[in-house]
Amino acid sequence: MRYKYLALSLLGLLGAAPVFAEVITFSPTKNVAATLVLEGPMLTVTVKNEAHNDSRTIDFQAENDLHMQINDFNFDGVKDFAVSQIDDGMGTFDYYRIFIYHQKSSTFEELQPDCGDGFVNLRIESKRKALISTYWEMNVPKQCVTRF
After folding, report:
1. Looking at the domain assignment, is residue 16 inside a domain?
2. Residue 78 CB: number of other CB atoms within 10 A?
3. Please, what is the end-to-end C-alpha distance for the chain in angstroms?
């Protein structure tokens, strides 16, 4: 009987353990600091430079784990970021939301693909300066090429 109470106590402690946030800090351009704080499905994006300080929160309404990636997604020499997750169904597809840094406004804005509703199974082709993703037309998978 003691072991049962011990096991239940330990499970209670594990259930009360705090969820730790994933934090990434990077510099999109010179003299600009961007901080991404991912806590569950919520991402807080903070951008700071000499003249600007902005923070916003994005709710991804995701059930699966989110993953952040820093890269130059539009091939302009400025660092951007993406947040991806595996689909909620069979876990076959990776969905990406890409956020491009705009120097004039000192903000990140979400990028949309040239076709389809989002970036699915994203591939970055630097030589072609293109983002390759999948979309469906009449339940047939097709390749979407978003160029810059």
Report:
1. no
2. 16
3. 66
Residue 102: which domain range?
Answer: 57-147
| Structural domains in the chain (count) | 1
**Tell me, what amino acid is at 30?**
K
Q: Is residue 26 part of a domain?
A: no
| Exposure b/e, 44-58, CB count within 10 A at least 16 = b | ebebebeeeeeeeeb
Answer yes or no: is 85 within a domain: yes
User: Which residues face 81 on adjacent strands?
Assistant: 70, 99
pTM of the model: 0.83
Q: How far is CA 74 from CA 5, 46, 82, 115, 130, in A?
A: 56, 20, 12, 16, 8
3-class DSSP state of 7: helix
Number of H helices, E strands in the chain: 1, 11
Per-residue pLDDT of the chain (148 residues; tens, 9 = 90+): 554 444 444 444 444 445 578 999 999 999 999 999 999 999 999 999 988 899 999 999 888 899 999 999 999 999 999 999 998 777 789 999 999 999 999 999 999 999 998 999 999 999 999 999 999 999 999 999 999 8
